[in-house]
Amino acid sequence: MREVREMSSAGEPRRQSTGLIDDDAFKGTKPLEDAGPFDLARLDAWLAANVEHYRGPLDIRQFKGGQSNPTYHITSPSGSLVLRRKPFGALLPSAHAVDREFRVISALHRAGFPVPTPYALCLDGDVIGTTFYVMEMMQGDIYWNALLPGASPERRRRIFRSQVETLAQLHHVDYAALGLSDYARPGNYFERQVIRWTKQYRSSETEHIQEVENLISWLPQSLPAQERVSIVHGDYRLDNTVFGNDDRIKAVLDWELSTLGDPLADFTYFLMQWAMPPDGRSGLAGVDLKSLGIPDIDEVISLYCGMTGRSDLPDLNWYFAYNLFRLVGILQGIAGRVRDGTASSEKAREMAARTRPLAMRAWDFAQKAEAGQ
């Protein structure tokens, strides 16, 4: 059995979902924040002109939670919609690209991959003050806690299997046939990502963290070879998926970090929860998985490899160090938005405070990877 070192809980950056979750801090909606820029009459007119079957007037509320692209629930006599927009104010380069989200969702929807139906993209900043798009409001369940409290062992197993099956399905999508060959720059995916998140970290840096400096130096010198290219979701986890009554995924949400790249980035990010202690969120380390019906990490790896034609995976420590470094970049971006007054959630300060402990754990995995070479 593979050795997976337990990682102390430092939390993960919460990104906006559209549906029900089992955490009161993020469940449901709230009145609009930044209500001033919203001209509801103008938005209503735009929806009537661009979304088939839309009929106003509208009511709009903001989904709770979210550190990234603010997300809204629109209700009207014609039904429900979801609106995702860029945050207002100064933004980091390449961040919050909702137009990219709309493009990849549109392509995947044509291919039959489970995503919400995309309806329309608005690049006109005069409508609500920034770029946004609207899509289907998915009806179903979103689970926050990977232990799935209250579920039977059989149901837990079905849910975990669906997660692996859906990720493998994504990594089999013919992105070229969907017109997405230019969805990323050429070259080694991990190299591009390390450069990107280093720049993002520097752009929003609020304090000196030596472990981050160590990672910025070490990661580019230890990059793994890239053998495959696929669409990469970038934040594939339980609370970014909507489940139906059959315990299968109806839709994958939050494509902000999607690109073309190494599918192992997605899969090893998904595997990290087996290295995290139970914290009411993603952690599974040290839990009696068999009694719960949750597959262990070896079973998950075997399942994914069988579905994608792999014989095995390389050492996980490098990938865990990389994934945590990327989360450090995301959390540091939240810290920068707290500093600049553009953070979209009251939880932002709490999330930003986790940057340093997360960096320490990333460097710990990096040292394990170095020792294993």
Molecular structure report:
The chain has helices spanning 40-50, 98-110, 153-172, 189-203, 210-218, 263-271, 289-292, 297-308, 316-340, 348-352, 355-372, and strands at 29-30, 59-63, 71-76, 79-85, 118-122, 132-136, 230-232, 241-243, 249-252, 259-261. By secondary structure, it is an alpha+beta fold. The protein folds into two domains: 29-136, Phosphorylase Kinase, domain 1 (2-Layer Sandwich); 153-372, Aminoglycoside 3'-phosphotransferase, Chain: A, domain 2 (Alpha-Beta Complex), CATH 3.90.1200. Strands 1-2-3-4-6-5 form a six-stranded antiparallel sheet, sandwiched between helices. Strands 7-10 form a two-stranded antiparallel sheet. It has a two-stranded antiparallel sheet with strand order 8-9. A hairpin with a 2-residue loop joins strand 3 (71-76) and strand 4. The longest helix has 25 residues, at 316-340. The chain is globular, with a radius of gyration of 20 Å. The two termini are 19 Å apart. The model is unreliable at 1-22 (pLDDT under 50).
List keywords for this structure.
373 residues, Aminoglycoside 3'-phosphotransferase, Chain: A, domain 2, Phosphorylase Kinase, domain 1, 11 helices, 10 strands, alpha+beta, 38% helix, single chain, two-stranded antiparallel ribbon, 2 domains
